[in-house]
Amino acid sequence: MTQQTGGQVHFARGVSIAERTIMPILAAMSLVALVIARAWPVTSVDSGQPTCIMRIATGLPCPGCGMTRSWVHLAHGDVARAFEYNFFGPIGFAMAVVLVVWTAYALLRRIPTSRLLDRVNPRWLVALTVVWLGYSVVRMISLGMGQDYFALVVA
């Protein structure tokens, strides 16, 4: 049973359609990305051409550069190489796995999937984002200066 109030459609328990569908949609997208990372051959990402527009235009890595390679290596069990491509790749990979597992658990137990967001501290997300962007700036500056700390990213 649904009711419409103020332009939004709500379920009888007061949960909007957006609140009910956002987590399963994000989980489905994460699952697709995890499956692609596992199916993608490692040799192809190691020798492939860059596809990042910022990298093609400037020669410098964007914050996400190396993330695809990191996920593919991690999906194939090469944890060390995954961290070398992008330190935050394995972190994002782990977050995707948690999202998929939580959503499946919540759907099976009939728990609102949005409760995962209640368990996440927004301050931690902001701090993680700031550290990720700082890491990215350090990568760009070091590569721009010709240092090879992150040479694997632009190889």
Explain how this protein is built.
There is one protein chain. The chain starts with a strand and ends with a helix. The model has no long low-confidence stretch (mean pLDDT 82). The protein has a two-stranded antiparallel ribbon with strand order 1-2. The chain has one domain. The protein is globular. The chain is mainly alpha-helical and 155 residues long. The longest helix has 23 residues, at 17-39. It has helices at residues 17-39, 42-47, 53-58, 67-75, 79-85, 89-109, 115-119, 122-144, 151-154; strands at 2-5, 8-11. Keywords: Membrane, Transmembrane, Transmembrane helix.
**Shape summary:** globular
The helix-strand sequence is EEHHHHHHHHH
User: How many strands, which pairing sense, and closed or not: the largest β-sheet?
Assistant: 2 strands, antiparallel
Helix content: 55-70%
Number of domains: 1
> Beta-strand level of the residues, as a percent range?
5-15%
Number of H/I helices: 9
Q: What is the distance, rounded to the nearest whole angstrom, between the alpha carbons of the first and last residues? A: 56 Å
Which value, in Å, is the CA radius of gyration?
A: 19 Å
Low-confidence sequence ranges: none
Strand order of the largest sheet: 1-2
E-strand count: 2
Computed structural class? mainly alpha
Pfam families: DUF2752 (PF10825)
InterPro entries: DUF2752
Transmembrane segments: 21-40, 87-108, 120-138
Keywords: Membrane, Transmembrane, Transmembrane helix
